[in-house]
């Protein structure tokens, strides 16, 4: 019997579903759920993590992330403008910085900021203590990535926008600030969101600076609990805590993009 | 500064402009008197848009001098932002700011450049929107307007800065045919109100009816200029005649299959 085209398609799709369901079912049946629950889902341990994981760990993760993002955004915008400058030494400095800091592990940069700066300037302190060190340490790396994103965004704004602004008598700086950069940022919202989510997870590197009970963030908190209770449940909870940050963030950004869609 | 009678709005002396090895303008001498409407026509690649953009210094001349309202634009120390306040520029591609409403498109330069307060800037903006027939579009974003509405908003944006001279760079070339008339009507009204205008255009009817003077350019030089009835009605020069016959009677171009006379480069 010869099958019609739609029948063939339906048959093929049915087989794919079947294979998919079979794989899931095998995993579900084969896994030892009791041992798994005992290692990863001990309700008493989950309870003991609250409310500290929210009031301290989650809060600090958000603060470190926002600090590093703010620092990276400002510094990254400056680097992007330097890369697009008519002044050649600005371009050289920005390019060298970006190539260097994109190539170094964030952990290393954080370490150098946290321990190098106090050695270099023994009389001074980084403002904000651990928070300041993390914001600068992670922000320096983030700025290198964001600079390239923002530069691409600025270049994606049609040349006529700058020309129209200049013919209205705006200076180059005013035209950049009020006309070009606002449009560039709308273009780069998706990649900048990526950077923010990456930073959220990179904030777990804060441990190299030696965090205390007050400055602890999600991952360190989870690992401490793991060592303490000799059980993996805290890691599962820590993972969920990250999703509590990143999932709503994606939603907010989606809304933002929709709102800007009509003004493009 | 000497106290001579009022200088022309635009004075150009021996202007040359090259892009790399490509010579686009080859010695232009040209004036636009106060209150005069001058239409610049010519085949694509003739340098007419480049000439217009040089007036506003969007292109840096290679050689020669340009004065606008008596201020030398080609002086390296010219306060370019200050001079540009007195010059309105309308582009082929409108170049409205897409992230701002129409009203804010009209107020942003007033506020940032002329330091007008919000209320005053909005009053002037609304008056100019009325002038171009867009009172009901103040709160729309550019993307919500038709091409013709966008171009009229762009004209209103320039007018909000109260310029003494308006430059138009093929303002209707990007429009659907049925939208061209609205923009040309606005421009005609502007001319009747006494605005000094320099218009690069392919709209021969506009040049014939509105211009005080028509300038025909080809190959980077001014070939012929004069009142529209002379240049368009009885052109003296062979190149002008050839161009006009191509534009006004495109289905009867004589040498079919002959190589295109105009240089390939677009302006």
From TrEMBL, chain A:
GO terms for molecular function: transmembrane transporter activity. The chain crosses the membrane at residues 12-31, 62-82, 103-121, 127-147, 232-253. It is a multi-pass membrane protein. Coiled coil: none annotated. Residues 58-253 form the ABC transmembrane type-1 domain. SUPFAM superfamilies: MetI-like. One of its GO terms (biological process) is amino acid transport. It is found in: Cell membrane. Keywords: Amino-acid transport, Cell membrane, Membrane, Transmembrane, Transmembrane helix, Transport. One of its GO terms (cellular component) is ATP-binding cassette (ABC) transporter complex. PROSITE patterns: ABC_TM1. Belongs to the binding-protein-dependent transport system permease family. NCBIfam families: HEQRo_perm_3TM. This is Glutamate/aspartate transport system permease pr otein. It comes from Micromonospora noduli.
UniProtKB/TrEMBL annotation, chain B:
InterPro entries: AAA+_ATPase, ABC_ATPase_HisP-typ, ABC_transporter-like_ATP-bd, ABC_transporter-like_CS, MetN_ABC_transporter-like, P-loop_NTPase. This is ABC-type polar-amino-acid transporter. It is found in: Cell membrane. Its main location: membrane. Residues 10-244 form the ABC transporter domain. It is a peripheral membrane protein. Transmembrane segments: none annotated. It catalyses: a polar amino acid(out) + ATP + H2O = a polar amino acid(in) + ADP + phosphate + H(+). Belongs to the ABC transporter superfamily. It holds the Pfam family ABC_tran. It comes from the Bacteria. Keywords: Amino-acid transport, ATP-binding, Cell membrane, Membrane, Nucleotide-binding, Transport. It comes from Micromonospora saelicesensis. One of its GO terms (cellular component) is plasma membrane. GO terms for molecular function: ATP binding; ATP hydrolysis activity; ATPase-coupled polar amino acid-transporter activity. Its EC number is 7.4.2.1.
């Amino acid at each position: 019997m010869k099958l019609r085209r739609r029948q063939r398609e339906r048959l093929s799709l049915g087989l794919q579903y079947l294979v998919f369901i079979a794989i899931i079912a095998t995993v579900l049946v084969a896994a030892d759920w009791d041992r798994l629950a005992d290692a990863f889902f001990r309700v008493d341990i989950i309870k003991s993590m609250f409310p500290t994981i929210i009031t301290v760990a989650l809060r600090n993760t958000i603060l470190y992330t926002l600090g590093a993002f703010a620092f990276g955004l400002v510094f990254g915008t400056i680097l992007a403008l330097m890369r697009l400058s008519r002044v050649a030494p600005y371009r050289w400095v920005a390019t060298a910085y970006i190539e260097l800091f994109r190539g170094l592990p964030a952990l290393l940069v954080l370490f150098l900021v946290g321990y190098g700066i106090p050695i270099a300037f023994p009389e001074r302190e980084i403002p904000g203590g651990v928070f300041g060190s993390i914001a600068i340490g992670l922000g320096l790396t983030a700025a290198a990535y964001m600079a390239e994103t923002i530069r691409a965004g600025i270049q994606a704004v049609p040349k006529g926008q700058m020309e129209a602004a200049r013919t209205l008598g705006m200076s180059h700086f005013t035209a950049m600030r009020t006309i070009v950069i606002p449009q560039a940022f709308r273009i780069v919202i998706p990649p900048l969101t990526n950077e923010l989510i990456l930073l959220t997870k990179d904030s777990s590197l804060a441990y190299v600076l030696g965090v205390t009970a007050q400055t602890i963030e999600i991952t360190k908190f989870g690992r401490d609990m793991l060592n303490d209770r000799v059980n993996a449940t805290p890691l599962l909870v820590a993972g969920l805590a990250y999703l509590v940050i990143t999932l709503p963030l994606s939603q907010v950004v989606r809304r933002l993009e929709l709102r800007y869609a009509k003004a493009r | 500064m000497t106290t001579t009678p009022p200088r022309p709005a635009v004075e150009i002396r021996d202007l040359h402009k090259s892009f790399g090895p490509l010579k686009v303008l080859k010695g232009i001498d040209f004036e636009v008197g106060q209150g005069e409407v001058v239409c610049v026509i010519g085949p694509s690649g003739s340098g007419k848009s480049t000439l217009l953009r040089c007036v506003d210094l969007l292109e840096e001349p290679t050689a020669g001098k340009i004065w606008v309202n008596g201020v030398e634009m080609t002086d390296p120390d010219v306060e370019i932002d200050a001079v540009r306040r007195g010059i309105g520029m309308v582009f082929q591609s409108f170049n409205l700011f897409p992230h701002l409403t129409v009203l804010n498109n009209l107020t942003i330069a007033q506020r940032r450049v002329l330091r007008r307060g919000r209320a005053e800037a909005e009053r002037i903006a609304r008056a100019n929107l009325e002038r171009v027939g867009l009172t009901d579009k103040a709160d729309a974003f550019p993307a919500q307007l038709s091409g013709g509405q966008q171009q009229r908003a762009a004209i209103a944006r320039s007018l909000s800065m109260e310029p003494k001279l308006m430059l138009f760079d093929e303002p209707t070339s990007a429009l659907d045919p049925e939208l061209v008339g609205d923009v040309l009507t606005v421009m005609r009204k502007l001319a009747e109100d006494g605005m000094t205008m320099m218009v690069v255009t392919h709209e021969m009817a506009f040049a014939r009816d509105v211009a005080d003077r028509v300038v025909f350019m080809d190959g980077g030089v001014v070939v012929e200029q004069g009142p529209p009835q002379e240049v368009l009605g009885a052109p003296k020069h062979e190149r002008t005649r050839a161009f006009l016959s191509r534009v006004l009677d495109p289905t009867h171009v004589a040498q079919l299959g002959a190589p295109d006379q105009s240089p390939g480069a677009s302006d």
